[in-house]
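Hypothesis: this fold can be encoded by more than one sequence.
Test: take the structure tokens below, design a sequence, compare later.
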């Protein structure tokens, strides 16, 4: 016989342990942690409910800010890698051949609905950086599959 078999199991459950551990944390800190989790969950819901065109606008704005902050001595591959990370999950090409004056971002394979919405949401984005859509002046320019090009002007 071993010593372990002679003793009864401990009467403490995992839930009781968590409950007693949380009881020792100050109430204000628990409320702050809960508020932080709610903010994080709300942001995830907001991201999940964005349309593809809204996510394209967000990615273009983030890429534009990155392009504006890059030193002029960066080579093309470094620029391509730095800006392409904003378009993960999309069929995107970054063409940095005219950097620092301009960087082109081409999104291939956009459907008609995304093209129509992106045409209105992202025609021209102005701020610290100007981002302009090339072409697609009217709704008839959007086909079933589209390759849309934006020029980031840092």
């Amino acid at each position: 016989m071993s010593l372990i078999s002679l003793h009864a199991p401990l009467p403490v459950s995992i839930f009781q342990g968590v409950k007693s551990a949380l009881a020792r944390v100050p109430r204000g800190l628990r409320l702050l942690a809960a508020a932080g989790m709610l903010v994080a969950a709300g942001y995830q819901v907001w991201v999940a409910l964005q349309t593809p065109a809204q996510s394209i606008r967000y990615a273009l704005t983030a890429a534009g800010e990155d392009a504006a902050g890059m030193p002029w001595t960066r080579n093309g591959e470094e620029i391509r890698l730095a800006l392409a990370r904003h378009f993960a999950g999309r069929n995107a090409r970054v063409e940095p051949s005219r950097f620092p004056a301009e960087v082109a971002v081409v999104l291939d394979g956009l459907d008609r609905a995304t093209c129509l919405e992106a045409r209105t949401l992202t025609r021209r984005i102005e701020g610290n950086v100007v981002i302009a859509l090339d072409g697609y002046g009217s709704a008839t320019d959007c086909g079933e599959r589209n390759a849309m090009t934006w020029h980031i002007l840092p």
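Residues 52-153 form one domain. The chain has a mean pLDDT of 89.
Hypothesis status: open.
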